[in-house]
Design goal:
6 helices, 114 residues
């Protein structure tokens, strides 16, 4: 059920993205627009990426993509956990809500036991 909700949301997001944001741009203007589009600090993401010994260089585009993917992942798991919080008539997410979402949704199986 939640997979259908998410896929519908992803399609809506794709349809509502303006042409200029969906197409890659070159030059300094793209760095400025990427900074505005990312909610997480790109410098922190780059530092975390470089902490991996296998990563020697990280382009601005790759840092942005990792930041955006992280934002979408956090949003997805938070929305799924919110369902469990609402079932408990709470507005605040608790660890048990995240645990319930991880157990119930196959996509989060890699997080089991954390």
């Amino acid at each position: 059920e939640s997979e259908l909700d998410r896929s519908g949301t992803e399609e809506e997001m794709r349809e509502n993205v303006p042409e200029e944001e969906s197409s890659p741009q070159a030059g300094p203007a793209s760095a400025t627009s990427q900074t505005r589009l990312a909610k997480l600090p790109l410098s922190r993401i780059k530092t975390l990426m470089k902490a991996d010994p296998d990563v020697t260089l990280a382009s601005q585009e790759s840092v942005f993509i990792i930041a955006k993917a992280t934002e979408l992942f956090v949003e997805m798991i938070a929305k799924d956990a919110l369902v469990y919080a609402q079932q408990g008539k709470r507005k605040t997410l608790q660890r048990k809500d995240l645990d319930n979402a991880i157990e119930a949704i196959d996509e989060f199986a890699f997080l089991e036991g954390m």
